[in-house]
TrEMBL record:
Signal peptide region: none
Family stated for the protein in its record: Belongs to the glycosyl hydrolase 1 family.
Biological processes, Gene Ontology terms: carbohydrate catabolic process
Name by which UniProt lists this protein: Glycosyl hydrolase, family 1
GO MF assignments: beta-glucosidase activity
Sorted UniProt keywords: Glycosidase, Hydrolase
Gene Ontology CC entries for this record: cytosol
UniProt organism field: Collinsella stercoris DSM 13279
Length: 484
């Protein structure tokens, strides 16, 4: 017998900048992703100063859900989704980000999306900021390092929460908020802090010559304050609203039983997962936060007013993405062949086509570690396998590798629930093929639904059901009992 509770929120997840398209339609302004080129696993995406001629920007069309949303949501309904985690593109509501009045065409677009979800019996879960900062706020204010963005975010959040009262009750404030702890990608995507004075910059993960740690930690502090104020506001607008944080989850193991490796794994685990979790769930920075600031060479001033704000605006649930685990080693020579988060390779695990360690047991470990710490409902809002899918001559798409990946992760979720974890839902990432955030590719496919489009933007955009589509439908129908 499966242990999934009645009302478990089975579904899928996307982000507007990776699936929506229509980047200059319906009054939408530019977002930071709209100035990011495509890339591959070997050639990084580039950030450009505005839109350069002759370059391919995947977000401009993405998979064109802007025009296909009705059919796509019907496919989600056919699978039996209970929940669809999606995002609102901020610049579709406020084109520059700092306007006082919203773009009405954007308001009406998302109203139609949410109504379509409701018609299919699907509960929308909306991320307010999913790597989609309006470019105007980056260009004119420097992104989230500027505290003025707190009020712009609250005006945007108040607008959509008021407009969609009764249509949306689950909200996430900032996607993978802890990515701001990483240089390069984190500063740009998480903080909207585009390198100034540089026309064409390759995207990096980790330290780079244009990264500014002080700006990243300031931006994160501003997001903490914005999130906390948003939680309070959401409850005032509608007491039925539930607001969650969203963390890029990563289980970290010591590479060996050397105490130095164990201590490094402990440090990386708590800093990656709990630095942001403690602020958003407990309402205060952890006791060891000043040691992080000292090591990073940054100064964070937490005023009495800030402390009160953080304490008052704790989240209702903790959501996270989980794709992989990592191992930590104190030996610099061992820290090769790890994951996107760095670290040493794990010889006990297989890897995806993109080098991400596949570790279902790590999901159970992570769930139990987080629940032991916070004791509030958890939700997995991203988990999936990026892979190369082939279309057969008859149009069928066989993806047993994806079914196996999901089956093994769902089994570990079931075991965690049996161990007492309060898990409220699971939305598999990229339920329809979309643009990869890390590489800008279409070739890296996650979905149950295939979209005919390639890395260069060519294709018919036709939608096709993969084998995993029918498998997941059966999983939902059985509430996780039938994983065959």
């Amino acid at each position: 017998m499966a242990n999934f509770p009645q009302g478990f929120l089975w579904g899928g997840a996307t982000a507007a900048n990776q699936c929506e398209g229509g980047y200059n339609e319906g009054g939408k302004g530019l977002g930071v992703p709209d100035i990011m080129t495509g890339g591959t696993v070997s050639e990084p995406r580039h950030i450009t100063d505005g839109i350069l001629e002759g370059r391919h920007y995947p977000s401009h069309e993405a998979v064109d859900m802007y025009h296909h949303y009705l059919d796509d949501i019907k496919l989600f309904g056919e699978m039996g989704f209970k929940c669809y985690r999606m995002s609102i593109n901020w610049s579709r509501i406020f084109p520059q980000g700092d306007e006082t009045e919203p773009n009405q065409a954007g308001i009406e677009f998302y109203r139609r999306v949410f109504e379509a979800c409701r018609e299919q019996g699907i509960e929308p879960m909306v991320t307010l900021s999913h790597y989609e900062l309006p470019y105007g706020l980056s260009k004119n204010y420097g992104g989230w390092k500027n505290p003025k963005l707190i009020d712009f975010f609250l005006n945007y959040s108040r607008t959509v929460m008021t407009e969609y009262k009764g249509l949306v009750k689950y909200w996430l404030t900032f996607n993978e908020i802890n990515c701001l702890l990483m240089g390069g990608f984190g500063g740009v995507m998480g903080g909207g802090m585009v390198p100034e004075g540089l026309e064409d910059v390759p995207m990096t993960f980790g330290a780079c010559d244009w990264d500014d740690p002080q700006a990243r930690f300031d931006a994160l502090h501003n997001q903490f304050l914005a999130s906390a104020k948003c939680v309070v506001m959401a409850h005032e607008i509608d007491p039925a609203n539930k607001v969650g944080c969203m963390i890029a989850g990563n289980a970290t193991y010591p590479h060996t039983c050397n105490p130095a490796d164990v201590l490094k794994a402990q440090r990386e685990q708590r800093e990656h997962n709990f630095y942001c979790g403690d602020v958003q769930v407990r309402g205060a920075y952890p006791a060891w936060a000043p040691s992080v600031w000292k090591r990073e060479g940054v100064t964070i001033e937490v005023s009495d007013e800030d402390a009160a704000t953080l304490k008052a605006g704790t989240v209702d649930f903790y959501s996270f993405s989980y794709y992989m685990s990592a191992t930590a080693s104190a030996d610099p020579k061992a820290s090769e062949g790890g994951n996107i988060f760095g670290g040493a390779g794990n010889p006990y695990l297989e890897k995806s086509d993109w080098g991400w360690a596949i570790d279902p047991e790590g999901l159970k470990y992570y769930l139990e570690e987080v629940y032991d710490r916070y004791q509030i409902p958890l939700m997995i809002v991203e988990n999936g396998l990026g892979a190369v899918d082939e279309v057969e001559p008859d149009g069928s798409i066989h993806d047993p590798y994806r079914i196996d990946y999901l089956r093994r992760h769902i089994q570990q979720m079931d075991e965690a629930i049996a161990d007492g974890v309060d898990l409220m839902g699971y939305t598999m990432w990229g339920c329809i093929d979309l643009v990869s955030a890390s590489t800008g590719e279409m070739k890296k496919r996650y979905g149950f639904i295939y979209v005919d489009k390639d890395n260069d933007g060519n294709g018919t955009l036709e939608r096709s059901r993969k084998d995993s589509f029918y498998w997941y439908k059966k999983v939902i129908e059985s509430n996780g009992a039938d994983l065959s």
